[in-house]
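Running this now, will post back.
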Amino acid sequence: MDGFGVGDGVTPLSGPMAGMYGTVVWFYEEKQQLLVRFGASQQMYYAAEELKSWGE
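Update: finished.
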């Protein structure tokens, strides 16, 4: 999973959610993507290279 695990705080590097805090909630192994949840209702899939750890 390239260093990210379920429960990790991350932020996307680009796109509409760039700079927003999100939490990894699931790893889609078949597509090698992480499901990141922002707030209570917004969530999106990202490849690990599209994310960085929150606070970096």
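The mean pLDDT is 94. More later if anyone needs it.
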